[in-house]
Amino acid sequence: MAAHDTVTGLDALELGPARDSGFADAARRVWRATWPKVLAIALVIGVWQIVVLAEWRPIFVLPAPLTVWEELVDVVPTGEFWDAVALTMGRAAYGFAIAVVIGMLIGVAVARFAPLRAAIGSLITGMQTMPSIVWFPFAILLFKLSEEAILFVVILGAAPAIANGLISGIDYVPPTWKRVGRVLGMRGFALYRHLIIPAALPSFVSGLKQGWAFAWRSLMAGELLVIVPGALSIGVRLQTARDLNDAPGLLAYIIIVLCVGIAVDVIFNVADKSLRRRWGMLQA
Amino acid sequence: MTLTIQGTAGTDAASTEVAVRLDGVSKQYGKGASALLALDDVSLSVDRGSFVSILGASGCGKSTLLSLVAGLDPLTSGTIDTGGHRVSLMFQEAALFPWLTVAANVEIALRMRGVGRAERKKRAAELLDVVRLGGFGKKRPHELSGGMRQRVALARALAQDADVLLMDEPFGALDAMTRDILHDELERVWREQRLTVLFVTHNVREAVRLGDRVVLLSSRPGRVIEEYPVGLARPRRIDSTEVAELAGAITDRLREEVSRHGRA
Protein backbone atom coordinates (compact mmCIF):
# COMPACT_ATOMS: atom_id res chain seq x y z
CA MET A 1 0.00 0.00 0.00
CA ALA A 2 1.57 3.26 -1.15
CA ALA A 3 0.20 5.49 1.62
CA HIS A 4 1.31 3.00 4.21
CA ASP A 5 4.83 2.96 2.78
CA THR A 6 5.03 6.74 2.85
CA VAL A 7 4.07 6.85 6.52
CA THR A 8 6.45 4.13 7.67
CA GLY A 9 9.19 5.42 5.38
CA LEU A 10 9.01 8.88 6.89
CA ASP A 11 8.98 7.39 10.40
CA ALA A 12 12.12 5.41 9.61
CA LEU A 13 13.88 8.48 8.21
CA GLU A 14 12.98 10.64 11.17
CA LEU A 15 14.15 8.13 13.73
CA GLY A 16 17.56 7.70 12.08
CA PRO A 17 19.66 4.56 12.01
CA ALA A 18 19.81 2.50 15.19
CA ARG A 19 23.07 2.71 17.07
CA ASP A 20 24.20 -0.29 19.04
CA SER A 21 26.42 0.30 22.03
CA GLY A 22 28.60 -2.75 22.56
CA PHE A 23 30.75 -3.88 25.43
CA ALA A 24 33.76 -1.86 24.28
CA ASP A 25 31.60 1.25 24.28
CA ALA A 26 30.50 0.62 27.85
CA ALA A 27 34.06 -0.07 28.98
CA ARG A 28 35.22 3.18 27.43
CA ARG A 29 32.44 5.05 29.22
CA VAL A 30 33.37 3.54 32.58
CA TRP A 31 37.01 4.40 32.03
CA ARG A 32 36.15 7.96 31.06
CA ALA A 33 34.18 8.38 34.27
CA THR A 34 36.76 6.66 36.47
CA TRP A 35 40.19 8.03 35.70
CA PRO A 36 39.52 11.62 36.82
CA LYS A 37 38.33 10.29 40.19
CA VAL A 38 41.37 8.04 40.61
CA LEU A 39 43.64 10.93 39.74
CA ALA A 40 41.91 13.24 42.23
CA ILE A 41 42.29 10.71 45.05
CA ALA A 42 45.95 10.17 44.16
CA LEU A 43 46.53 13.93 44.27
CA VAL A 44 44.91 14.30 47.70
CA ILE A 45 46.94 11.41 49.12
CA GLY A 46 50.10 12.85 47.54
CA VAL A 47 49.58 16.28 49.10
CA TRP A 48 48.74 14.66 52.45
CA GLN A 49 51.97 12.63 52.31
CA ILE A 50 54.00 15.76 51.51
CA VAL A 51 52.48 17.64 54.46
CA VAL A 52 53.32 14.71 56.73
CA LEU A 53 56.89 14.52 55.39
CA ALA A 54 57.30 18.26 55.96
CA GLU A 55 56.49 17.57 59.63
CA TRP A 56 54.00 20.43 59.86
CA ARG A 57 52.42 18.61 62.81
CA PRO A 58 53.79 15.78 64.94
CA ILE A 59 53.25 12.36 63.40
CA PHE A 60 50.90 11.18 66.20
CA VAL A 61 48.54 14.08 65.44
CA LEU A 62 48.70 13.90 61.67
CA PRO A 63 49.57 10.35 60.66
CA ALA A 64 50.72 9.33 57.20
CA PRO A 65 48.20 7.98 54.65
CA LEU A 66 49.73 4.51 54.95
CA THR A 67 49.20 4.46 58.72
CA VAL A 68 45.55 5.41 58.30
CA TRP A 69 45.18 2.80 55.57
CA GLU A 70 46.54 0.13 57.91
CA GLU A 71 44.12 1.32 60.59
CA LEU A 72 41.26 1.00 58.12
CA VAL A 73 42.36 -2.49 57.14
CA ASP A 74 42.49 -3.33 60.85
CA VAL A 75 39.15 -1.78 61.79
CA VAL A 76 36.89 -2.60 58.87
CA PRO A 77 36.78 -6.41 59.32
CA THR A 78 35.86 -6.15 63.04
CA GLY A 79 32.39 -6.78 64.42
CA GLU A 80 32.55 -3.56 66.43
CA PHE A 81 33.00 -1.56 63.26
CA TRP A 82 30.00 -3.12 61.56
CA ASP A 83 27.90 -2.69 64.70
CA ALA A 84 28.72 1.01 64.63
CA VAL A 85 27.91 1.29 60.93
CA ALA A 86 24.68 -0.67 61.38
CA LEU A 87 23.59 1.53 64.27
CA THR A 88 24.36 4.77 62.49
CA MET A 89 22.90 3.70 59.15
CA GLY A 90 19.83 2.35 60.94
CA ARG A 91 19.26 5.73 62.57
CA ALA A 92 19.85 7.46 59.24
CA ALA A 93 17.43 5.21 57.36
CA TYR A 94 14.75 5.42 60.05
CA GLY A 95 14.99 9.19 60.38
CA PHE A 96 15.11 9.70 56.64
CA ALA A 97 12.10 7.44 56.07
CA ILE A 98 10.01 9.39 58.57
CA ALA A 99 11.23 12.64 57.02
CA VAL A 100 10.14 11.41 53.57
CA VAL A 101 6.63 10.65 54.80
CA ILE A 102 6.30 13.97 56.65
CA GLY A 103 7.90 15.90 53.79
CA MET A 104 5.50 14.36 51.27
CA LEU A 105 2.43 15.07 53.37
CA ILE A 106 3.47 18.67 53.93
CA GLY A 107 4.49 19.04 50.28
CA VAL A 108 1.18 17.84 48.87
CA ALA A 109 -0.81 19.84 51.41
CA VAL A 110 1.08 23.06 50.70
CA ALA A 111 0.93 22.56 46.94
CA ARG A 112 -2.84 21.98 47.08
CA PHE A 113 -4.08 24.60 49.50
CA ALA A 114 -3.15 28.17 48.71
CA PRO A 115 -3.76 29.54 52.24
CA LEU A 116 -1.45 26.89 53.68
CA ARG A 117 1.22 27.90 51.21
CA ALA A 118 0.83 31.54 52.17
CA ALA A 119 1.05 30.53 55.83
CA ILE A 120 4.03 28.18 55.87
CA GLY A 121 5.59 28.22 52.39
CA SER A 122 8.43 30.56 53.29
CA LEU A 123 8.74 28.96 56.72
CA ILE A 124 9.68 25.68 55.04
CA THR A 125 12.40 27.35 53.00
CA GLY A 126 13.61 29.14 56.12
CA MET A 127 13.84 25.87 58.02
CA GLN A 128 15.78 24.38 55.14
CA THR A 129 18.49 27.03 55.36
CA MET A 130 18.79 26.67 59.14
CA PRO A 131 21.85 24.80 60.43
CA SER A 132 20.19 21.87 62.13
CA ILE A 133 22.78 21.81 64.93
CA VAL A 134 21.04 24.80 66.54
CA TRP A 135 18.12 22.48 67.35
CA PHE A 136 20.18 20.14 69.51
CA PRO A 137 20.13 22.03 72.81
CA PHE A 138 16.34 22.20 72.56
CA ALA A 139 16.08 18.58 71.42
CA ILE A 140 18.14 17.46 74.42
CA LEU A 141 15.85 19.42 76.74
CA LEU A 142 12.80 17.86 75.11
CA PHE A 143 13.97 14.28 74.82
CA LYS A 144 17.05 14.08 77.10
CA LEU A 145 20.09 12.22 75.74
CA SER A 146 18.09 9.74 73.74
CA GLU A 147 17.52 8.31 70.28
CA GLU A 148 14.46 10.54 69.99
CA ALA A 149 16.58 13.67 70.35
CA ILE A 150 18.75 12.63 67.40
CA LEU A 151 15.77 11.52 65.34
CA PHE A 152 13.98 14.80 66.02
CA VAL A 153 16.81 16.84 64.56
CA VAL A 154 17.41 14.48 61.63
CA ILE A 155 13.75 14.82 60.65
CA LEU A 156 13.76 18.59 61.11
CA GLY A 157 16.81 18.72 58.87
CA ALA A 158 15.54 16.53 56.06
CA ALA A 159 11.76 17.04 55.87
CA PRO A 160 11.77 20.68 54.64
CA ALA A 161 14.07 19.88 51.70
CA ILE A 162 11.90 16.91 50.73
CA ALA A 163 8.71 18.97 51.01
CA ASN A 164 10.23 21.77 48.94
CA GLY A 165 11.32 19.35 46.22
CA LEU A 166 7.81 17.98 45.96
CA ILE A 167 6.19 21.43 46.03
CA SER A 168 8.31 22.77 43.19
CA GLY A 169 7.76 19.53 41.27
CA ILE A 170 3.99 19.94 41.57
CA ASP A 171 4.19 23.65 40.75
CA TYR A 172 6.04 23.01 37.53
CA VAL A 173 3.83 20.29 36.09
CA PRO A 174 3.33 21.63 32.54
CA PRO A 175 -0.20 23.03 32.04
CA THR A 176 -0.65 21.01 28.83
CA TRP A 177 -0.25 17.77 30.80
CA LYS A 178 -2.84 18.97 33.27
CA ARG A 179 -5.21 19.74 30.42
CA VAL A 180 -4.64 16.25 29.01
CA GLY A 181 -5.37 14.90 32.47
CA ARG A 182 -8.68 16.75 32.53
CA VAL A 183 -9.56 15.59 29.02
CA LEU A 184 -8.86 12.01 30.11
CA GLY A 185 -11.10 12.51 33.11
CA MET A 186 -8.47 12.43 35.87
CA ARG A 187 -9.78 13.77 39.14
CA GLY A 188 -8.85 13.73 42.82
CA PHE A 189 -6.66 10.83 43.82
CA ALA A 190 -6.36 9.44 40.28
CA LEU A 191 -5.04 12.81 39.12
CA TYR A 192 -2.27 12.65 41.72
CA ARG A 193 -1.58 8.97 41.21
CA HIS A 194 -1.35 9.06 37.40
CA LEU A 195 -0.27 12.60 36.62
CA ILE A 196 0.88 14.98 39.34
CA ILE A 197 3.15 12.66 41.31
CA PRO A 198 4.89 11.03 38.33
CA ALA A 199 5.28 14.43 36.66
CA ALA A 200 6.79 15.87 39.85
CA LEU A 201 9.17 12.94 40.27
CA PRO A 202 12.41 14.47 38.92
CA SER A 203 12.12 17.43 41.25
CA PHE A 204 11.05 15.16 44.10
CA VAL A 205 14.15 12.98 43.61
CA SER A 206 16.44 16.00 43.81
CA GLY A 207 14.55 17.02 46.96
CA LEU A 208 15.19 13.54 48.39
CA LYS A 209 18.86 13.83 47.56
CA GLN A 210 19.13 17.17 49.29
CA GLY A 211 17.06 15.88 52.20
CA TRP A 212 19.44 12.97 52.59
CA ALA A 213 22.44 15.31 52.73
CA PHE A 214 20.74 17.31 55.50
CA ALA A 215 19.76 14.14 57.37
CA TRP A 216 23.29 12.76 57.23
CA ARG A 217 24.84 16.00 58.49
CA SER A 218 22.29 16.32 61.28
CA LEU A 219 22.89 12.73 62.27
CA MET A 220 26.68 13.15 62.48
CA ALA A 221 26.27 16.30 64.56
CA GLY A 222 23.75 14.48 66.72
CA GLU A 223 25.97 11.48 67.33
CA LEU A 224 28.77 13.75 68.48
CA LEU A 225 26.55 15.81 70.79
CA VAL A 226 23.98 13.34 72.02
CA ILE A 227 25.83 10.36 73.38
CA VAL A 228 23.23 7.75 74.15
CA PRO A 229 24.60 5.33 76.80
CA GLY A 230 25.48 1.94 75.32
CA ALA A 231 24.97 2.99 71.69
CA LEU A 232 28.39 2.77 70.07
CA SER A 233 27.69 4.63 66.84
CA ILE A 234 30.17 6.03 64.33
CA GLY A 235 29.89 9.38 66.11
CA VAL A 236 30.77 7.79 69.44
CA ARG A 237 33.75 6.05 67.84
CA LEU A 238 34.98 9.40 66.53
CA GLN A 239 34.59 10.94 69.96
CA THR A 240 36.40 8.04 71.62
CA ALA A 241 39.26 8.21 69.12
CA ARG A 242 39.70 11.87 69.94
CA ASP A 243 39.63 11.21 73.66
CA LEU A 244 42.37 8.60 73.25
CA ASN A 245 44.43 10.80 70.91
CA ASP A 246 43.99 8.03 68.33
CA ALA A 247 44.55 10.10 65.19
CA PRO A 248 44.68 7.17 62.74
CA GLY A 249 41.38 5.85 64.15
CA LEU A 250 39.83 9.31 63.90
CA LEU A 251 40.87 9.72 60.28
CA ALA A 252 39.76 6.18 59.46
CA TYR A 253 36.23 6.95 60.70
CA ILE A 254 36.17 10.29 58.91
CA ILE A 255 36.98 8.43 55.70
CA ILE A 256 34.16 5.99 56.45
CA VAL A 257 31.70 8.87 56.90
CA LEU A 258 32.87 10.33 53.60
CA CYS A 259 32.49 6.98 51.85
CA VAL A 260 28.95 6.49 53.12
CA GLY A 261 28.04 9.96 51.88
CA ILE A 262 29.51 9.25 48.45
CA ALA A 263 27.87 5.82 48.21
CA VAL A 264 24.40 7.18 48.95
CA ASP A 265 24.96 10.05 46.55
CA VAL A 266 25.84 7.53 43.85
CA ILE A 267 22.56 5.72 44.48
CA PHE A 268 20.58 8.94 44.13
CA ASN A 269 22.48 9.86 40.99
CA VAL A 270 21.77 6.49 39.40
CA ALA A 271 18.06 6.93 40.17
CA ASP A 272 18.13 10.48 38.85
CA LYS A 273 19.95 9.51 35.66
CA SER A 274 17.73 6.57 34.80
CA LEU A 275 14.72 8.83 35.32
CA ARG A 276 16.17 11.48 33.02
CA ARG A 277 17.08 8.91 30.41
CA ARG A 278 13.56 7.53 30.35
CA TRP A 279 12.14 11.02 30.08
CA GLY A 280 14.53 11.84 27.25
CA MET A 281 16.21 14.63 29.19
CA LEU A 282 19.67 13.12 28.65
CA GLN A 283 21.63 12.54 25.49
CA ALA A 284 21.90 8.78 25.11
CA MET B 1 -26.55 33.05 13.15
CA THR B 2 -26.96 29.36 12.64
CA LEU B 3 -25.31 27.26 10.01
CA THR B 4 -26.27 23.75 9.23
CA ILE B 5 -24.75 21.78 6.45
CA GLN B 6 -25.27 18.12 6.10
CA GLY B 7 -24.27 15.47 3.65
CA THR B 8 -20.67 14.37 3.93
CA ALA B 9 -18.55 11.97 2.04
CA GLY B 10 -17.74 8.81 3.91
CA THR B 11 -20.86 8.40 6.00
CA ASP B 12 -24.26 7.01 5.19
CA ALA B 13 -26.73 9.46 3.82
CA ALA B 14 -29.21 8.47 6.54
CA SER B 15 -27.09 9.89 9.34
CA THR B 16 -28.20 13.49 9.58
CA GLU B 17 -28.05 13.32 13.33
CA VAL B 18 -26.38 16.34 14.90
CA ALA B 19 -23.35 15.43 17.01
CA VAL B 20 -22.54 18.85 18.44
CA ARG B 21 -24.84 21.84 18.67
CA LEU B 22 -23.77 25.26 19.90
CA ASP B 23 -26.51 27.77 20.57
CA GLY B 24 -25.70 31.43 21.17
CA VAL B 25 -22.47 30.57 22.94
CA SER B 26 -20.57 33.44 24.52
CA LYS B 27 -17.49 33.36 26.66
CA GLN B 28 -16.13 36.25 28.63
CA TYR B 29 -12.94 36.19 30.65
CA GLY B 30 -12.73 38.43 33.67
CA LYS B 31 -15.19 41.07 34.80
CA GLY B 32 -15.69 44.82 34.60
CA ALA B 33 -13.33 47.05 32.61
CA SER B 34 -10.70 44.36 32.06
CA ALA B 35 -13.24 41.83 30.79
CA LEU B 36 -12.42 40.16 27.51
CA LEU B 37 -15.16 38.83 25.30
CA ALA B 38 -13.59 35.84 23.59
CA LEU B 39 -16.66 34.41 21.86
CA ASP B 40 -19.84 36.29 21.02
CA ASP B 41 -23.10 34.50 20.23
CA VAL B 42 -21.63 31.59 18.30
CA SER B 43 -24.15 29.10 16.96
CA LEU B 44 -23.05 26.08 15.05
CA SER B 45 -24.31 22.61 14.47
CA VAL B 46 -22.09 19.78 13.37
CA ASP B 47 -23.54 16.69 11.79
CA ARG B 48 -22.47 13.34 12.99
CA GLY B 49 -19.60 12.00 10.91
CA SER B 50 -18.76 15.35 9.35
CA PHE B 51 -15.44 17.16 9.35
CA VAL B 52 -15.65 20.86 10.15
CA SER B 53 -12.65 23.16 9.92
CA ILE B 54 -12.77 26.24 12.11
CA LEU B 55 -10.62 29.01 10.78
CA GLY B 56 -9.65 32.38 12.13
CA ALA B 57 -6.85 34.82 12.73
CA SER B 58 -5.26 35.29 16.14
CA GLY B 59 -7.62 36.18 18.94
CA CYS B 60 -10.72 34.67 17.39
CA GLY B 61 -11.26 32.34 20.33
CA LYS B 62 -10.76 29.13 18.35
CA SER B 63 -9.09 27.34 21.23
CA THR B 64 -11.65 28.71 23.67
CA LEU B 65 -14.40 27.27 21.51
CA LEU B 66 -12.91 23.78 21.72
CA SER B 67 -12.32 24.05 25.47
CA LEU B 68 -15.97 24.90 25.90
CA VAL B 69 -17.16 21.99 23.77
CA ALA B 70 -14.83 19.66 25.68
CA GLY B 71 -16.34 20.93 28.91
CA LEU B 72 -13.03 22.18 30.28
CA ASP B 73 -14.34 25.73 30.74
CA PRO B 74 -17.74 27.03 31.82
CA LEU B 75 -19.81 29.05 29.33
CA THR B 76 -20.78 32.63 30.01
CA SER B 77 -24.06 32.20 28.15
CA GLY B 78 -25.68 29.93 25.58
CA THR B 79 -25.78 26.16 25.43
CA ILE B 80 -23.65 23.40 24.03
CA ASP B 81 -25.23 20.04 23.36
CA THR B 82 -23.03 17.07 22.55
CA GLY B 83 -25.97 14.69 22.73
CA GLY B 84 -24.23 12.18 24.94
CA HIS B 85 -21.35 11.73 22.52
CA ARG B 86 -17.95 11.18 24.03
CA VAL B 87 -15.68 14.11 23.27
CA SER B 88 -11.92 14.14 23.15
CA LEU B 89 -9.51 17.00 22.60
CA MET B 90 -6.09 17.06 20.95
CA PHE B 91 -3.61 19.92 21.21
CA GLN B 92 -0.76 21.34 19.17
CA GLU B 93 1.64 19.52 21.47
CA ALA B 94 1.16 15.78 21.66
CA ALA B 95 1.59 16.18 25.47
CA LEU B 96 2.40 12.52 25.98
CA PHE B 97 3.54 11.56 29.47
CA PRO B 98 7.32 10.97 29.35
CA TRP B 99 7.28 8.53 32.28
CA LEU B 100 5.10 6.11 30.34
CA THR B 101 5.85 4.02 27.27
CA VAL B 102 3.97 4.76 24.07
CA ALA B 103 1.58 1.87 24.71
CA ALA B 104 1.03 2.96 28.33
CA ASN B 105 0.22 6.47 27.13
CA VAL B 106 -2.67 5.00 25.16
CA GLU B 107 -3.61 2.61 27.96
CA ILE B 108 -3.93 5.40 30.50
CA ALA B 109 -6.96 6.73 28.61
CA LEU B 110 -8.53 3.26 28.75
CA ARG B 111 -7.68 2.93 32.41
CA MET B 112 -9.45 6.18 33.22
CA ARG B 113 -12.55 4.63 31.64
CA GLY B 114 -12.23 1.59 33.90
CA VAL B 115 -11.15 -0.89 31.22
CA GLY B 116 -9.50 -4.01 32.67
CA ARG B 117 -5.79 -4.69 32.36
CA ALA B 118 -5.83 -7.45 29.71
CA GLU B 119 -8.39 -5.63 27.62
CA ARG B 120 -6.33 -2.41 27.90
CA LYS B 121 -3.26 -4.10 26.47
CA LYS B 122 -5.17 -5.56 23.56
CA ARG B 123 -7.05 -2.38 22.75
CA ALA B 124 -3.95 -0.17 22.97
CA ALA B 125 -2.12 -2.44 20.54
CA GLU B 126 -5.07 -2.25 18.15
CA LEU B 127 -5.19 1.52 18.36
CA LEU B 128 -1.46 1.84 17.72
CA ASP B 129 -2.03 -0.28 14.63
CA VAL B 130 -4.76 2.13 13.56
CA VAL B 131 -2.24 5.00 13.59
CA ARG B 132 0.40 2.72 12.03
CA LEU B 133 2.68 2.63 15.04
CA GLY B 134 2.24 -1.08 15.69
CA GLY B 135 5.87 -1.84 16.52
CA PHE B 136 6.47 1.20 18.71
CA GLY B 137 4.50 0.39 21.85
CA LYS B 138 7.56 -0.20 24.01
CA LYS B 139 9.31 3.02 22.96
CA ARG B 140 9.38 6.16 25.03
CA PRO B 141 7.73 9.30 23.65
CA HIS B 142 11.07 11.12 23.30
CA GLU B 143 12.28 8.38 20.98
CA LEU B 144 9.61 9.26 18.42
CA SER B 145 9.44 12.11 15.92
CA GLY B 146 6.93 14.94 16.31
CA GLY B 147 4.57 13.47 13.74
CA MET B 148 4.67 10.06 15.39
CA ARG B 149 3.94 11.58 18.78
CA GLN B 150 0.91 13.33 17.35
CA ARG B 151 -0.31 9.97 16.04
CA VAL B 152 0.12 8.47 19.51
CA ALA B 153 -1.95 11.37 20.83
CA LEU B 154 -4.57 10.50 18.22
CA ALA B 155 -4.55 6.88 19.37
CA ARG B 156 -4.95 8.08 22.95
CA ALA B 157 -7.91 10.24 21.94
CA LEU B 158 -9.48 7.26 20.17
CA ALA B 159 -8.88 5.19 23.31
CA GLN B 160 -11.36 7.43 25.08
CA ASP B 161 -13.90 5.86 22.79
CA ALA B 162 -14.77 9.35 21.66
CA ASP B 163 -16.75 9.75 18.50
CA VAL B 164 -16.33 13.52 18.54
CA LEU B 165 -12.74 14.61 18.14
CA LEU B 166 -11.78 18.22 18.80
CA MET B 167 -8.42 19.18 17.37
CA ASP B 168 -6.66 22.40 18.33
CA GLU B 169 -4.08 23.11 15.60
CA PRO B 170 -2.76 19.58 16.00
CA PHE B 171 -0.30 19.79 13.11
CA GLY B 172 0.81 23.39 13.66
CA ALA B 173 4.27 22.49 14.92
CA LEU B 174 5.09 19.95 12.20
CA ASP B 175 7.04 20.34 8.96
CA ALA B 176 5.11 20.50 5.68
CA MET B 177 5.96 16.96 4.57
CA THR B 178 4.89 15.36 7.84
CA ARG B 179 1.78 17.51 7.98
CA ASP B 180 0.79 16.44 4.48
CA ILE B 181 1.07 12.78 5.42
CA LEU B 182 -0.81 13.29 8.65
CA HIS B 183 -3.66 14.90 6.72
CA ASP B 184 -4.01 11.65 4.76
CA GLU B 185 -3.79 9.66 7.97
CA LEU B 186 -6.34 11.75 9.81
CA GLU B 187 -8.72 11.55 6.86
CA ARG B 188 -8.37 7.77 6.80
CA VAL B 189 -8.91 7.38 10.56
CA TRP B 190 -11.86 9.78 10.45
CA ARG B 191 -13.58 7.59 7.83
CA GLU B 192 -12.65 4.25 9.35
CA GLN B 193 -13.67 5.22 12.89
CA ARG B 194 -16.68 7.28 11.76
CA LEU B 195 -15.59 10.26 13.79
CA THR B 196 -17.02 13.73 13.95
CA VAL B 197 -14.15 16.20 13.81
CA LEU B 198 -13.93 19.86 14.78
CA PHE B 199 -10.58 20.96 13.48
CA VAL B 200 -9.23 24.36 14.50
CA THR B 201 -6.46 25.88 12.42
CA HIS B 202 -5.12 29.17 11.12
CA ASN B 203 -3.83 27.48 7.98
CA VAL B 204 -6.40 28.15 5.26
CA ARG B 205 -5.25 25.42 2.88
CA GLU B 206 -5.24 22.89 5.65
CA ALA B 207 -8.80 23.87 6.53
CA VAL B 208 -9.92 23.39 2.93
CA ARG B 209 -7.88 20.22 2.45
CA LEU B 210 -9.63 18.51 5.36
CA GLY B 211 -13.04 20.05 5.96
CA ASP B 212 -16.48 19.23 4.64
CA ARG B 213 -16.99 22.87 5.41
CA VAL B 214 -14.92 25.73 6.67
CA VAL B 215 -16.30 28.03 9.34
CA LEU B 216 -14.63 31.43 9.46
CA LEU B 217 -14.49 33.26 12.77
CA SER B 218 -13.89 36.97 13.31
CA SER B 219 -11.38 38.20 15.85
CA ARG B 220 -12.03 39.88 19.19
CA PRO B 221 -14.67 38.82 19.79
CA GLY B 222 -15.00 35.56 17.92
CA ARG B 223 -18.13 35.43 15.81
CA VAL B 224 -19.08 33.22 12.91
CA ILE B 225 -18.73 35.55 9.91
CA GLU B 226 -18.74 33.21 6.99
CA GLU B 227 -19.16 29.60 6.18
CA TYR B 228 -17.85 27.79 3.12
CA PRO B 229 -19.03 24.35 2.04
CA VAL B 230 -16.18 22.46 0.46
CA GLY B 231 -17.65 20.49 -2.40
CA LEU B 232 -14.39 18.98 -3.57
CA ALA B 233 -14.12 15.24 -3.95
CA ARG B 234 -11.87 13.28 -1.59
CA PRO B 235 -9.07 12.40 -1.47
CA ARG B 236 -7.85 15.95 -1.95
CA ARG B 237 -4.36 17.26 -2.29
CA ILE B 238 -3.32 20.36 -0.42
CA ASP B 239 -1.48 21.65 -3.51
CA SER B 240 -4.31 21.03 -5.99
CA THR B 241 -5.65 24.05 -7.91
CA GLU B 242 -9.18 23.52 -6.57
CA VAL B 243 -8.00 23.65 -2.97
CA ALA B 244 -5.79 26.65 -3.76
CA GLU B 245 -8.66 28.48 -5.43
CA LEU B 246 -11.09 28.15 -2.53
CA ALA B 247 -8.29 28.84 -0.04
CA GLY B 248 -7.52 32.03 -1.97
CA ALA B 249 -11.09 33.26 -1.66
CA ILE B 250 -11.19 32.48 2.05
CA THR B 251 -7.82 34.16 2.60
CA ASP B 252 -9.15 37.34 1.00
CA ARG B 253 -12.10 37.36 3.37
CA LEU B 254 -9.78 36.67 6.31
CA ARG B 255 -7.48 39.55 5.33
CA GLU B 256 -10.45 41.86 5.17
CA GLU B 257 -11.37 40.82 8.69
CA VAL B 258 -7.83 41.27 9.99
CA SER B 259 -7.39 44.73 8.41
CA ARG B 260 -10.61 45.84 10.06
CA HIS B 261 -8.66 45.72 13.33
CA GLY B 262 -5.88 47.83 11.81
CA ARG B 263 -8.31 50.61 10.99
CA ALA B 264 -10.08 50.56 14.31
Structure description:
Chain A has 284 residues and is mainly alpha-helical. Chain A has helices at residues 2-15, 23-53, 65-75, 79-112, 114-129, 136-143, 147-171, 175-183, 188-225, 234-243, 247-279. Chain B is of the alpha/beta class and 264 residues long. Chain B is built from seven helices and nine strands; from the N terminus they run βββαββαααβαβαββα. In chain B, the strands form two sheets. In chain B, strands 5-6-7-3-8-9 form a six-stranded mixed sheet, with helices on both faces. In chain B, strands 2-1-4 form a three-stranded antiparallel sheet, with helices on one face. The relative contact order of chain B is 0.18. Residues 1-15 of chain B have low confidence and may be disordered. The interface between A and B is medium-sized, with 28 and 34 residues. Chain A: Residues 85-268 form the ABC transmembrane type-1 domain. Chain A: It comes from Actinorhabdospora filicis. Chain A: InterPro entries: MetI-like (IPR000515), MetI-like_sf (IPR035906).
* CATH architecture type of chain A: Orthogonal Bundle
Q: What is the name of the CATH superfamily of chain A?
A: MetI-like
H/E order of the elements of chain A?
HHHHHHHHHHH
Shape of chain A: flat
Give unreliable regions of chain A as ranges: none
Compressed to H and E, one letter per element, the order of chain B equals EEEHEEHHHEHEHEEH
Helix content of chain A: over 70%
The unreliable regions of chain B are: 1-15
What is the H level of CATH, i.e. the homologous superfamily of the largest domain in chain B?
A: P-loop containing nucleotide triphosphate hydrolases
Mean pLDDT of chain A: 89
Described by the principal axes of the CA atoms, the overall outline of chain B is globular
Let me know the average pLDDT of chain B.
85
| Major sheet of chain A | none
Count up the domains of chain A. Answer: 1
**Distance between termini of chain A?**
34 Å
**What's the CATH class of chain A, please?**
Mainly Alpha
